[in-house]
Amino acid sequence: MSIQIENLSFSYLQPSGEKVDALKNVSFTIETGDFVGIMGPTGSGKTTLLQLLAGLRLPTSGRIYFNGEEINAKGYDRNRLRQTVGVVFQDPEYQLFATTVEKDVAFGLKESGLSRQEATDRVRWALETMGFDFEKVRNQSPLALSGGEKRRVAIAGVIARKPEILIFDEPIAGLDPFGRENFLQFVTERNQTGTTIIMTSHNMEALAEYTKHLLVLKEGRLIDAGATREVFTRLKQRYNGAFQTKAQRIAILLAEGKLMFSPAVVTYGDLLSALKQELTGGGRG
Q1: What domains lie within the chain, and their CATH numbers?
Q2: Which H or E element spans position 39?
């Protein structure tokens, strides 16, 4: 399902009465099956953009189209939107509310038309996909689980509906390296099955390594967009370190010691390959 954003803006009033322009005239397109990262400093409008894409807020101006249909137009089927888009916001464990894990994950399937057995099978699949033993966890209270387990249950409740689009807001914040890698592998696998992934993160290494395209926000404006590697290369040149991956920073430091690297070094994998080539003389004429 393709997404087209045209001149999207969102403003709100603070309690003091001051107007805040959270998004300013943002336009972009996301193709079906893409894996899109959204990055920018705190307050740049990332979460607001996700809320608008999910139909949880109405834009001040501009339009959002899913497969050519405007989602905020009168008569648009909002239930279809809820079935199409799955959203996991920051602190997803606060989305949990049912008495058992199974009931919590099954909640979003009530209007799906699935039989009871089909719904149970779907819940089992979602929980097992997130690394749980279904029989062990199904009757537990979700509130009794650890923080990491609560997050995985919340995600299971979203993927159980098998939405065409999965939206994640800072999903790897607070995860240890093992948990972070497992999550990123999971979303990559979902993307490979055709699910469109949209993910915000302050972790530039994760965005550089896993996403296909990147949107960069600053003070509510879209300052760059395109293929991930190309965006990082442009940002390195334009913003003097503000949007650099650690691999890019290391390459710059090493260049001061007369080791020369291609501007295409963005990820740690790129850096290791460039180092190997340089140290073995492969990069010399």
Answers
A1: 3-244 (3.40.50.300), 245-285 (no CATH)
A2: strand 35-39
